[in-house]
């Protein structure tokens, strides 16, 4: 019996490995164009700067990718559902400022302050999501209001003065290493696996895609659309708070100036990764590749001395190009879908 049981276990394990390999191969095929563009960008960066491929610089790219990539995972789900969240940069500043106030001015133990900040960030996200879902206010308007309010709250908490947080164990969260990788990067990769499973292997994840495809049809099929929408903004609030804590640990301070422009970098990574602003389309793997592409691009531009204002132009051009490509794919797919449906209804089609 034990031999039979062992054989079945081995069979299940090999089957799981085959499924994982097939899934990885399918993901690589789906994002082949983006991967090719990333390889070209890396090669060009190596040719243009001798410092690009150095170990310290690669670690720096990983660390910067982690700070935005963590939020991009949640943003992927939001955009797949046909929504948008432009408040995440201000949410980072609010989390960092609240951490500085609670830990250093109010004297709370740092671990407790971290938990409090993450809970507060999640609660703010849920509140915004509830307004979107139950008051039927467009997510752009809701998060635009949070974008302003949270940044203002951050400045009020700190009086626009950074609050030093000097603790070696806390500093390790932002600057330490695990197996040679920055701690934030390790956390990002762990969260990537979790969110990849959620997106494709759970009922909740499939519900998000259904809502993005057709919210009315999703509601009629029994999916709690309002509840799912609310939870999505809670997720981005949670992840923005985590990123705010990590950035505070990295720079040893609670600062209302953190997170400026992060919302643009996060949304760019998701869109470049293939997610559609119309909803219903997007993958965690695509977001990962898109995040790496943007991190490498920004790092290379700094190394070769591109003017900082020109960098904004380059990033804007990348976003515009990604959206144009997405629209071309959508428009070229529509005639084929209509043609198949027409063919399927043709009276001359053999049954």
Characterise the protein shown here:
The structure is a single chain. The chain is mostly helical. The chain has helices at residues 2-30, 32-48, 55-80, 88-105, 110-134, 139-158, 168-175, 183-201, 203-213, 215-220, 225-251, 262-272, 284-303, 308-345, and strands spanning 163-164, 177-178, 181-182, 253-254. The strands form two sheets. The protein has a two-stranded antiparallel ribbon. Strand 2 (177-178) and strand 3 (181-182) form a beta hairpin. The N and C termini lie far apart (50 Å). The model is unreliable at 341-351 (pLDDT under 50).
Topology:
Blueprint: H1 2-30, H2 32-48, H3 55-80, H4 88-105, H5 110-134, H6 139-158, E1 163-164, H7 168-175, E2 177-178, E3 181-182, H8 183-201, H9 203-213, H10 215-220, H11 225-251, E4 253-254, H12 262-272, H13 284-303, H14 308-345
Antiparallel strand pairs: 1-4, 2-3
């Amino acid at each position: 019996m034990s031999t039979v049981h062992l054989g079945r276990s081995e069979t299940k394990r090999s089957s799981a490995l085959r499924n994982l390999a097939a899934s990885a191969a399918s993901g690589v095929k789906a994002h082949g164009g983006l991967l090719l563009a990333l390889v070209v960008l890396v090669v060009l960066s190596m040719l243009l700067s001798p410092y690009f491929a150095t170990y310290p610089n690669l670690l720096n790219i990983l660390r910067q990718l982690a700070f935005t990539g963590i939020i991009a995972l949640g943003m992927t789900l939001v955009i797949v559902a046909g929504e948008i969240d432009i408040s995440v940069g201000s949410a980072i500043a609010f989390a960092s400022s609240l951490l500085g106030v609670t830990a250093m001015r109010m004297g709370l133990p740092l671990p407790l302050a971290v938990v409090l900040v993450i809970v507060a960030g999640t609660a703010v996200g849920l509140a915004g999501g509830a307004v979107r879902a139950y008051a039927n206010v467009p997510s752009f308007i809701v998060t635009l209001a949070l974008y302003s309010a949270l940044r203002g709250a951050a400045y009020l908490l700190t009086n626009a003065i950074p609050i030093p947080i000097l603790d070696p164990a806390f500093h390790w969260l932002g600057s330490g290493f695990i197996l040679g990788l920055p701690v934030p990067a390790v956390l990002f990769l762990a969260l990537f696996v979790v969110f990849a499973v959620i997106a494709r292997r759970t009922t909740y994840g499939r519900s998000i895609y259904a809502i993005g495809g057709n919210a009315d049809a999703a509601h009629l099929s029994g999916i709690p659309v309002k509840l799912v929408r609310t939870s999505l903004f809670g997720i981005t609030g949670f992840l923005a708070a985590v990123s705010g804590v990590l950035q505070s640990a990295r720079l040893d301070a609670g600062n209302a100036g953190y997170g400026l422009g992060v919302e643009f970098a996060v949304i760019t990574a998701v869109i470049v990764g293939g997610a559609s602003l119309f909803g219903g389309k997007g993958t965690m793997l695509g977001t990962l590749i898109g995040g790496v592409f943007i991190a490498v691009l920004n790092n290379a531009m700094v190394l070769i001395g591109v003017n900082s204002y020109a960098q904004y132009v380059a990033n804007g051009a990348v976003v515009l190009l990604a959206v144009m490509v997405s629209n071309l794919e959508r428009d070229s797919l529509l005639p084929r879908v209509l043609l198949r449906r027409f063919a399927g209804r043709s009276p001359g089609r053999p049954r």
